[in-house]
Amino acid sequence: MNQISIFLENKYGRLNEILSFLAASKVRVIAATVADTSDYGILRLITSNQQETYSLLKENGVSASLSPVLVIATAPDTASFAETIAHFTKAGIDIDYMYCFSLGEKVAIVLRTKNTDAAHDVVRKNGLDYIDESDLI
Amino acid sequence: MKEYWQKDLETMHRSDLEKLQTERLKKTIEQASNAPFYKKVFAENNLSADSITSLADLQRFPFTTKNDLREYYPFGLSAVPLKEVVRLHSSSGTTGNPTVVLHTQRDLDEWANQVARCMYMVGLRDTDVFQNTSGYGMFTGGLGFQYGAERLGAMTVPAAAGNSRRQIKFIMDFGTTALHILPSYATRLAEVFQELGIDVKKDTQLTTFCIGAEPHSEEQRKRIEQLLGVKAYNCFGMSEMNGPGVAFECKEQNGLHIWEDYVIVEILDPDTLQPMPDGEVGELVLTTINREAMPLIRYRTRDLTCFITEPCPCGRTHRKIARLKGRSDDMMIVKGVNIFPIQIEKILMNFKDLGMNYFITIDTIGNNDEMTVEVELSEDIQIDDYARLQSLSREITRQLKDEILLTPNVKLVEKGTLPQSEGKAVRVKDLRKLI
Asked: Using CA atoms, how far apart are residues B217 and B104, in angstroms rounded to an integer?
């Protein structure tokens, strides 16, 4: 599935401004993370509807794009978390970044790799619990 | 087939053209000596129309500067009785006293002819619909193009500056084929077209843009052409030389023909004031030879350019000057290096991940001058990749350093955050304190 990435200038109040656009809509934010450098950050979001969120942001003049990520559900314990990541390590796949959110009783791990095809193979071969946008509604 | 507005004059043999220039120069000097300013200057230097026997004799005459125009404001350079003057244009005077340029009816007719010649040269005809998005009033890009386009016979729409939606409505309703437009505003207009969901290439009849009044790079021209599906021609003018029409690109788009039956062109070393060798950049110095009310002798324009010496395939014999490098007044000196905003623009326009808008700030940090270049990202950039954003800023920094020889701070900003103007773009802010 896709996540939404937003270019965030290092400017007082900008995060608040962007979130207020979303708060005024039907879109539900499910996960959010911000990484920063000194001049700008990237805000990454997973919402109840990525395409709608994307259009909404564009209409409000926010620099945003959609980018593919892999979302996998695991049991909420460290061993399961470690085991999931180990599958990718064994397959020789580099992880660019990851973040998590809670999904009912489970933990959803959001992974970004450069090699999406190989990552999907890992999911299939190991029977991992793959999360789709329809699971989030 | 080659077509000209005035074939005889535009393709005149160089030796005939020089003969014409010499005659007109002699007449101009005679005319100028009626003006209080030149009367004094000629007397002090023991010069008169008799001093002219060939073009080279012009070099015996002193220069005229903007300061002279200010000092003799408003009528000290008038070479005709004021009752013969039918129009006055004045510069804004934001950097000092205003200056004034006066015209007789004949001057206005000649100016209109000059602009019509330029427009004809880029393919415009009496069947065109020409919309002028220039400010009217004192700004010469308004009336200058208005009268030129009417002389050409085009249907002329004096839309004046600003209000993009109204401009677009006119373009759609009247079937506008040509615009006179500031290059920075052309890119703004392209955005508004996009916002309105109008495909310029399919839904309008636009073919030709005359862009000028602010320095712009070849790269910016290409972007305008791509974004709007038009041919964009560089036009050069300045209020002291009437306004638009002084020099204009032909269809070759490689340098601007400067009309040598209207002006005598010199390109001089700004320090020694000696002629630069052909092809080397220097200050453009112009002498009007077809103006009654207010002749100017060896006027220092402060604009920097060079001659393009190869003959032009279009067949016109009037020499070409290169795209203006900027005015010597626009030049920034940072850490002892001379920099023109257009050098920076040229680099930025090559990155497809960047938008059209940028802003340069110079400030003193500690004891050092620092230059910061803020530049908007393009709408289509993939934002997710940090490495990509970082390598983008690194690459911009590297290329800028190669061009301007110092390392600026490059700051990527969101599209739409930098000041967006519908008039001349202000792109530089100098915050340095003079010590």
From this structure: 35
CB < 8 Å to B354, chain A: none
> CA of A12 to nearest chain B CA: how many angstroms apart?
14
Complex ipTM value: 0.76
Say yes or no: A61 contacts chain B, CB-CB below 8 A.
yes
Domains and CATH numbers, chain B: 1-328 (3.40.50.12780), 332-430 (3.30.300.30)
pTM exceeding the 0.90 threshold for the entire prediction: no
Would the CB atoms of A64 and B383 count as touching at under 8 Å?
yes
Distance CA A110, CA B194 (A): 35
CB within 8 Å: B384 and A42? yes
- B417–A9 C-beta distance less than 8 A: yes
The CATH-assigned architecture of domain A2-67 is 2-Layer Sandwich (3.30)
pLDDT tens digits along B196-227: 999 999 999 999 999 987 778 898 899 999 99
Secondary structure (DSSP) of B206-222 = --EEEEESS---HHHHH
Q: What is the pLDDT of residues B292-310, one digit of tens each?
A: 999 999 999 988 899 998 9
* Reported CATH class of domain A70-136: alpha beta
- Taking contacts as CB-CB distances below 8 angstroms, the residues of chain A near B411 are 39
Q: Is the peptide bond before A68 cis (omega within 30 degrees of 0)?
A: no
